[in-house]
Amino acid sequence: MMLQSPDLDLVEFVEKNILPRYAAFDAAHNIAHVTGVIKRALQMVRTTGADINMVYVVAAYHDLGLSGPRAIHHVTGGRILQQDARLKKWFSKEQLKIMKEAVEDHRASASHAPRSIYGKIVAEADRDLTPRNVFLRCIQFGKEHYPELDKEQHWARFCEHLEEKYSRHGYMRLWIQGSENEKNLTRVRELISNPVSLRGIFDELYEV
Asked: I want to staple 176 with a disulfide (CB 3.0 to 4.6 A). Which of 46, 69, 101, 124 is the partner?
């Protein structure tokens, strides 16, 4: 069975007006990131029964709030989506409310479960937990936001962040059972628990 696609006119609108905005963000949240999130989100439509157009737009808008303070980017992003009058061409007021909440709920550190399947899908899709990508994005973020740190200080920040977010005691939560992310998160946790292997990976990716 072929994977269903979003409406072509909606795709054209998003690709022309929304995706280019990610070029202004850091290397861990650039156009490659959002297109990856969209791809993974659309793959979940068939098994969840979600509306493909809603999934597509939530994934496309999910990090637009990075145009403001990072700490509240999920809230800002939800507001940007809901207040974009152009989306009324495709969605009802109730659909836009659900989509706004889904953007708000996508953040990994959220204290509550996403309120709808759309929030769960984008939260899951936002987590590309392929070990190499997890570690590379962490290093890229550190270099981008803490350029004053030397390599050893970046190593310390790298370890602290991985422990806080991805370890067995971390705040990372997955919402779609049986996903590829479950397998990848297990592997990430194995590597985090092995400092020697982790340091080798860090040294390699630090030069990328």
From this structure: 124
Q: What is the largest CA-CA distance in the chain?
A: 54
CA distances from 66 to 25, 41, 48, 70, 197 (A): 7, 20, 28, 6, 33
DSSP code of residue 171: S
Instruction: Report the distance separating Cα 80 and Cα 87, nearest Å.
Output: 11
pLDDT, tens only, 151-208:
999 999 999 999 999 999 998 888 888 788 889 999 999 999 999 999 999 999 999 8
User: CA–CA separation, 176 vs 23, rounded Å?
Assistant: 29
| Residue 136: half-sphere exposure toward Cβ, Cα within 13 Å | 14
Residue with tokens 């962040």: 161
* Contact present, 62 and 70 (Cβ < 8 Å): no
Cα pseudo-dihedral 5, 137, 25, 101, rounded to 10: 50
CB atoms within 10 A of CB 108: 15
CA angle, corner 173, sides to 167 and 177, nearest 5? 115
Q: Is 206:154 a contact under the CB 8 Å cutoff?
A: yes
Place of tokens 């439509």: 45
